[in-house]
Structures
1.
Amino acid sequence: MISSTTRLSFMAAKEQSDPRGCGPLGGPDCVCRAAVTRAFEGMTRSGAPYDSALSAARKVFQYHHPELEVGVSELIERWISPESVH
């Protein structure tokens, strides 16, 4: 059982603004998808190999969502896919 002090500490930490400028993944304040795709597209436009551009996109994603580890590569590849519409 979680104590009320622990619950309040968690709620206070959650209320603080995120210095990375991103809210919960996929939420209305989440800006990471645009940042990730911008990083990938910028790298590929400049002539970087696909793997290097994907690595840069992963780093941008991890900056915004360090709490997520599983499934990140698959999510990023869906975002940067030409067939992805949203």
2.
Amino acid sequence: MEAILDIPTISEAETLLPGAEEQRVEGSYDDFVAWLRQCDYPIEYENGNIVIMSIASDEHEKIVANLLGAFFIAMRGNRNLGRYGSNRHIYIPALSKAYSPDASVVKGDPEVFTYSAGKDAYTNPWLVAEVISPSSRSRDFGEKLHGYKAIPDLQYILCIEQERPFVTVFERIDDTARWRSTDYDALSQSFPIGEFSVAMSDLYENLKF
């Protein structure tokens, strides 16, 4: 049996500082699953690499909290839409990629992929959202955006800037593999998500630029 990679401790994972670049460790899918069982920091899996994520900044977490709050208000009473934070992984079977978006919404019953006992992920998000920081920009708009677009059930991808009021909404065009994108750049604006909408002023409440 192939040996499992040693799991770095918090002190060894230097990129766990707020805003630092993520750390990549080459490893197998089995290594990733073993790390999930034991490590106490966020990790993702992509292209034969275990990606150790940095600790989120204060601004990042304020935006995520505001977004989930806005989703609660907009979708309250709709039992067909489940709302989740970053602890709910999204797994993409066709690409063998595991991501932990800052927020996600599943429409209907979640489809579950099980890594191991007590460790699972959903495979059918209707919406995913990522808060973009300087350290995550390249990956969020590169590998991760490409991966998310490969999810058949996904209809919306939100890319939310951390350092200024700016949101890019990617929306699937009908039932095709093509997407359209629309930018929102003013606190006076709102962006539509299906039959709902989110106000930019709510999303960026209590943030200073």
